[in-house]
Amino acid sequence: MATRFPDPLERLIARFTRNPLLQRVIRNSGYLLSGSTLSALLSMVQGILAARLLGIAGFGLLGTITQFASVINRLTSFRMGELVVSYVGEYSAQNRPQHAAAVFKAAALTETASTLLAYLLLLALAPLGARYLAHDAALAPLFSLYGLIILANLIAESSTGLLQYFDRFRSLAGIAVGQSALTLLLIAGAFFAQAGLQAVVVAYLVGKVVWAAAITGAALWQARRVWGAGWWRVSLALLKDRRRDLFRFAFSTNLTGTLTLVTKDSEILWLSALSTPLQVGYYKVALRIINVLLIPIQPLISTTYREVAREVASRQWQNVRYLLRSGSLISAAYSLAAALGMVIFGRWVVALHGEGFLPTSYQAMLILLAGVTVVNVFYWNRTVLLPLGLPEYPTKVNLVAAVLKVAGMLLIVPRAGAMGMAVLLSAFFAGTGGVLVWKTLKEIRRAAALPAASPGS
Predict the structure, then answer these.
(1) pLDDT confidence of 3, banded at 50, 70, 90?
(2) Cα separation of 32 and 303, whole Å?
(3) Spatial contact of 377 and 335, defined as CB atoms under 8 Å apart
(4) 450: which DSSP letter?
């Protein structure tokens, strides 16, 4: 008699093998995950070489310079990738290719304008960044030099969104790996030549420029392939009846992104201003290790969002719930195992960067691990609210959290340094993630209870 799996195990296996929605998520996530894993390994080696070359304080300065440009770039960003996925997807599903092309064109033009504004802003603020964040006015030219990545990313967000929607996840993964490999080669050259901070900054700059150029080129090729050579001549007037929706979406995601910058993605800059390059160096190593743990989950965010947006548009609420539950199960299996691994082996990983980073970087990493595990398991906590028509809700939650976190940083970080910053970021992750998960599930239940809209409405 054939052996049967127990019913719960059989259902679990079926969940991951029989549903075409989850199969697409897993397949596309697999492309990104393979690329992300290789990129993460290459990035880890990059960080180890850079940390050993520059020392604790020098590694902290590197983090300040690179994050300064990144923060300013994202400050004016409208997160056009999400808008492109949502609205190109909507018009493509309605078989309105000209409208879909107009969305991409509008997104690219808007992103170009915001990118140019960001670059001018960086040039104006670079001397202040050097003086008050790096505590060395002589570093201003390096701030301006690395700021060239902003110009390289002229339409990178819109391009990434278009490639995601049209299922070009394999291309995205390949480009990411190529960029990481190139950067590693350049940093290895600087390491063996015993070059200084400027050489490492240039290595990171070249890698980012190559990535942005490849992403943009691939997206423009895809647009031509789908919509024809003259797609860029389509009139933006096609979108006039949705102008308010597009603006609302872009503005809300920009404001949410800005609040995220203040509360999460500018940690290095806050620590630079409130503490010393030494504390920044400790914290940067802890963040780098934690970010490696986040990398395998990042593909699930974009691939799940793509599928959820389609199912929400079709009011397939059972499929939406299925995707969220299954995604969380996959993420939890990885995240809990990774957390245990870092508790056991994290001290050794930190020591690879240099013995001087112990024990502070390891302790900060353990604190961050708690909040990151929550965010990993419920990785969809913000994005699902976008197709549900609530792009402002994450903004409101982040606004409250931002006020509390900034107050906490001003009170705690000057005395506690890297450890204080780790406590605040971990609490931010767990708190905002919990609220957004609750709201998402509540809205799905509410929407599922509503009658379907008539075709003409």
Answers:
(1) very low
(2) 9
(3) yes
(4) S
pLDDT of residue 436: 93
> How many residues does the structure list for the chain?
457
DSSP output for 291-342 = HHHHTTTHHHHHHHHHHHHHHHHTT-HHHHHHHHHHHHHHHHHHHHHHHHHH
Q: Where are the domains of the chain?
A: 11-447
Measured in whole angstroms, how far is the alpha carbon of residue 255 from the centre of its chain? 16
Q: Which residue has the tokens 């390994």?
A: 41
Per-residue confidence (pLDDT) for residue 456, from 0 to 100:
43
The separation between the first and the last C-alpha atoms of the chain, rounded to the nearest angstrom, is 57
pLDDT at position 1, please? 43
Q: Within 13 Å of residue 234, how many CA atoms lie on the same side as its CB?
A: 22
Query: Under a CB-based contact definition with an 8 Å cutoff, are residues 50 and 187 in contact?
Result: yes
Taking CA atoms, 242 is separated from 82, 99, 100, 236, 426, in Å, by: 16, 10, 12, 11, 39
Q: Which two tokens stand for residue 45?
A: 């080696």
Q: Which residues make Cβ contacts (< 8 Å) with residue 90, sequence separation at least 6? A: 313
- pLDDT greater than 80 at residue 16: no
Q: Are 102 and 236 in contact (CB under 8 A)?
A: yes
Instruction: DSSP letter for 452, please.
Output: P
> Structure tokens of 18?
């029989």
**By the 8 A CB rule, do 444 and 320 touch?**
yes
From residue 207, alpha-carbon distances to 120, 182, 191 in Å are 22, 6, 16
Query: How many whole angstroms from its chain centre is CA 416?
Result: 27
Q: Please report, for residues 26, 263, 422, the alpha-carbon distance to residue 71 in angstroms, rounded to integers and kept in the order given.
A: 31, 12, 19
Q: What does the buried/exposed string (b/e) look like for 282-315 if buried means 16 or more CB atoms within 10 Å of the residue's CB?
A: bbbbbbbbbbbbbbbbbbbbbbbbbbbbbbbeee
Q: What is the pTM of this model?
A: 0.75
Q: Which two tokens stand for residue 412?
A: 């705690």
Do you find a cis peptide bond into 359, omega within 30 degrees of 0?
A: yes
Residues 439, 394: contact at Cβ < 8 Å? no
Asked whether 68 and 265 are in contact (CB, 8 A), the reply is no
Alpha-carbon distance of 82 to 76, in angstroms, equals: 15
Choice between 42 and 417, residue whose per-residue pLDDT is larger? 417
71: left (phi over 0), alpha (psi -120 to 50) or beta: alpha
Predicted confidence band of residue 89 (pLDDT cuts 50, 70, 90): confident
Identity (one letter) of the amino acid at 340?
L
Is the Cβ–Cβ distance between 78 and 114 less than 8 Å? yes
